[in-house]
Structures are given as structure tokens and as C-alpha cells.
Amino acid sequence: MFNNQQIMDLPKHSDISFKPLADKALLHTQLSSLLFYIPLIGALIAVCYFNEAFANNAQTYLLIGMPILVAVSMAYNIISVRLRGFAVRNHDIAFKKGVIWQQVTVLPLARVQHMEIHQGPIERKLSLASIKLFSAGGVSADLQISGLTHDDCKNMRQFVQNYRQDDATTQAALVDE
């Protein structure tokens, strides 16, 4: 007989104790932003150099606007990185992010099909890495956590692999019964 009881007391995701990202995650984010802004500013300088009419019209706006844009972006990065966190629990991994629109993603470990650890050149210098977790049927990562130490990524990957092996062993035991 099928029984489907209604749950009255839902668990609260606010009870999850999130661990902050690595100490150097903010530095990585700021350097990545600067790597975007420096070529942009260089291109604008080149346009102003070769196009005097544009330079005369836009010079004031660029001299005021670009520093403000860079400062606001850097301040946003500080807030954003400080609000991110992750939690590895017995049966799932949770990740929170967002400043204005906050998002908590919880991925059950039983759904994880494969994982990737990624390190770009800046991440490698800072001993940071990103982990991508993929579930069944997806082309893109269902969960990507950037700003972790490389050791945290390797430990998380090992934990998920051990969970999958334990889950497979349990499933095999149930089939044998």
C-alpha cells in the first residue's frame, strides 16, 4: 500500500553552516576584474589618441566614469566574495552566492556523475582552484564553486568519490538480497 505523508516541519536551509571561501579568493576576483578593465581602459585611450573628436566629447565622462566604475566593481567584488560560502554535508553539497539576488544551490551527492577541478594561471599562483560538479543529463556543471583552496577541491572530490563508492556498494547489497 502506497503512503504519502505530508511533511509539516520542513528543514531550514538557514540551518546550514556555510564555510567561507579561501582567504585569497578575494584577491583572485579583484585580479580577474583588473585583467578585464586594464585592456578596456587601454582601448579607450587608444581610441581617444586616434580620434580627437571622440576624445574632446568623451574625455570628461571617461576621466570621471571609469574610476567610478572600477571602484564600484571592486567594492561589489568584496561584498560578493564575503557572502559566498559552501557546505559539504553527509548527503549533499550546498553553495550560496549573491549580493542582491541570493541563491543557495544544494546538489545531492547521489546525483553527481562526474567532477572537474580547474586551475587557471592566477588560481595556480594563489594555490586556488574551482570544482565543477555535474549531475545526470546535464551538459554544463550543475554546481561550480570557485575560490577554494586546491586542497579543499581535492578533498571534496575524494569525499564525493567515496560517497559514490559507498552508495554503489549499498545498492549492490540490496540487489543481492
Describe this structure as you would to a colleague.
- Keywords: Membrane, Transmembrane, Transmembrane helix.
- It comes from Pseudoalteromonas distincta.
- Pfam families: bPH_2 (PF03703).
- The protein folds into 2 domains: about 25-80; about 85-175, Pleckstrin-homology domain (PH domain)/Phosphotyrosine-binding domain (PTB) (PH-domain like, Roll), CATH 2.30.29.30.
- The chain is built from 4 helices and 7 strands; from the N terminus they run βααββββαββα.
- The protein is of the alpha+beta class.
- The mean pLDDT is about 90.
- A hairpin with a 5-residue loop joins β3 (about 90-95) and β4 (about 105-110).
- It has helices spanning about 25-50, 50-85, 120-125, 150-175; strands at about 20, 85-90, 90-95, 105-110, 110-120, 130-135, 145-150.
From the structure above, extract its key features.
PH domain-containing protein; 2 domains; transmembrane helix; 177 residues; three-stranded antiparallel β-sheet; membrane; four-stranded antiparallel β-sheet; PH-domain like
Short description:
By secondary structure, this protein is an alpha+beta fold.
